[in-house]
């Protein structure tokens, strides 16, 4: 049967599945019941990498919308910097292990690991790009994985895609502190294996989404990252929505999100 042939079964999930032993090492899996083998979208939430500010419930409305349009969805939770073991390296290794856990889920569920896209919002946009770039990490990095799951494409929505730039020029006094809480070591070393901008070219298509009314991650950060990615040889596209703020972009009822979802087939 073809990948898009229907089965007539209802959607499955959300099903909570652990990829580790810590409380935050789990994801919620949804499957579209009418697709034999579905492309899978991994969702990574934001919240400044801090559990107090956000968890995977932020992305649940998008998960429900995506599954209704024929995608399998793995909504990923991870340890924040305010949890034991979070920060460097735990936040990164959680995302890495959570993504690679899809290989284990493939034996139980109808998901297509040849068509994996990651969508992240805000701090999750940073983690989405970083996860796609893991194969670029040097073996000596404490974040390197032996066999990272290949990713077809990434959508970074209002993402903190260049940690150094946001650390130095982000809005408000909190920009420096929140990144200092995430990364470790000297300035030169800590961004080398944690910032997507330092790992270019990532080698997969990237859609970088910004709202011109976003006061938390102003659109110039997204545009500057796209220019840098293109200069490195990546296929990166900037998508800017007039009047959209930081959270409009992940409202499934918004015209912005519907246009973002419409771009997914070009990444898969």
**Which homologous superfamily in CATH is the superfamily?**
Alpha/Beta hydrolase fold, catalytic domain
Number of helices: 9
Structural class: alpha/beta
Residues in helices, as a percent range: 25-40%
Number of strands: 8
Major sheet attributes: 8 strands, mixed
The mean pLDDT is 91
State the order of secondary-structure elements, H for helix, E for strand: EEEHEHHEHEHHHEHEH
Features:
single chain; 268 residues; alpha/beta; Rossmann fold; eight-stranded mixed sheet; 8 strands
Give me a quick take on this structure:
The protein has 268 residues and is α/β, with parallel strands linked by helices. The protein is built from nine helices and eight strands. Helix 1 links the parallel strand 3 (38-44) and strand 4 (72-76).
Ordered list of secondary-structure elements with their pairings:
Blueprint: E1 12-18, E2 26-31, E3 38-44, H1 60-68, E4 72-76, H2 90-100, H3 102-105, E5 111-121, H4 123-132, E6 153-157, H5 163-169, H6 174-182, H7 187-190, E7 206-211, H8 219-231, E8 236-241, H9 255-267
Parallel strand pairs: 3-4, 3-5, 5-6, 6-7, 7-8
Antiparallel strand pairs: 1-2, 2-4
Helix pairs in contact: 5-6
What does this structure look like?
There is one protein chain. With 268 residues, the protein is of the alpha/beta class. The protein has a single domain (12-267), classed as Rossmann fold (3-Layer(aba) Sandwich), CATH 3.40.50. Helices cover 30% and strands 20% of the residues. It contains nine helices and eight strands. Strands 1-2-4-3-5-6-7-8 form an eight-stranded mixed sheet, sandwiched between helices. Helix 8 (219-231) links the parallel strand 7 (206-211) and strand 8 (236-241). Helix 5 runs antiparallel to helix 6 (174-182). The longest helix is centred in the C-terminal third of the chain and has 13 residues, at 219-231. The model is unreliable at 1-8 (pLDDT under 50).
